[in-house]
């Protein structure tokens, strides 16, 4: 695993060739390899300062220059950057890097990291736990209620808002989202969770009463078109025919799930490498619409930055558009969805890459 590179020494002592599984995409891998090289050459500036400028960085794994305001949160936090640099340096000692992506999705990024001097890269994804679409026993009632509601909605009509296992909003931001949803007029399913008092390092909780955090009368006014829930069965929801858009925090697993089910994304990254994922999907690949790509959780319980109702409404309207350029974008996502499934079949790109990886392990052990 990415954060277990220290175990490579133990493997070497036992005569086991070191390989690393990289759960993020090839784009972030290429980004970190570039940062590590710049750091070791003494050419890496203060990223925490750069993020507040209009500067751009040329990143080999991205076709377009990356505005520094979209630098991923994990590298602008000074306590995290040295750890990431050290881990990336150790990656270069591996016999190979297994990445959770597929060739048809990240063709450019994979080409950028598959160069002389880097270990071989094996894209074997998308690796998804499709069984997670079914709930645990204690979540069965909530699951049934959500799926029955979706069953009653027209195909492609629902925008799904869900921000991962760590995503949450306090009252002020929830109010802006509510106003945006009401004005946009689209059917919606919104997973709204309460922030932990420990900030992003704590697990979000559930609101006991949504009326305490949402504008007065919102639930009544939108009862015919929307549903607010706590925990959400994300995989099952994305796979439902009524869902036509996904407002997401842009965690890599969520990005792959959206691709698998052919659902376009509204990009609202929060932390970790999510800003880079968002930029790749919005600008490089054209699979997503921006909600607010420079959003950052500032590690305070209230989340810090505020995204306005106008920004959210505009992003949702573009995401759910059925005609013009956005309509073609939706068609492209559907096409890549088919590619993601084909990649895992016999003769597919990821299946073939896995075979090469297995053969390489056998050769190195021999």
Automatic annotation (TrEMBL):
The annotated pathway is:
Pigment biosynthesis; anthocyanin biosynthesis
Enzyme class, top EC level, equals transferase
Domain of life, per lineage: Eukaryota
UniProt-recorded name of the protein: anthocyanidin 3-O-glucosyltransferase
Coiled-coil annotated spans = none
- Catalysed transformations (reactions): an anthocyanidin + UDP-alpha-D-glucose + H(+) = an anthocyanidin 3-O-beta-D-glucoside + UDP
Family named by the database record:
Belongs to the UDP-glycosyltransferase family.
Q: Which PANTHER family match?
A: GLYCOSYLTRANSFERASE
The Enzyme Commission number assigned here is: 2.4.1.115
Gene Ontology molecular function: anthocyanidin 3-O-glucosyltransferase activity
- One Pfam annotation reads UDPGT
Which source organism does the UniProt entry give? Linum tenue
Which keywords does this Swiss-Prot/TrEMBL entry list? Answer: Glycosyltransferase, Transferase
Q: Which InterPro entries match?
A: UDP-glycosyltransf_plant (IPR050481), UDP_glucos_trans (IPR002213), UDP_glycos_trans_CS (IPR035595)
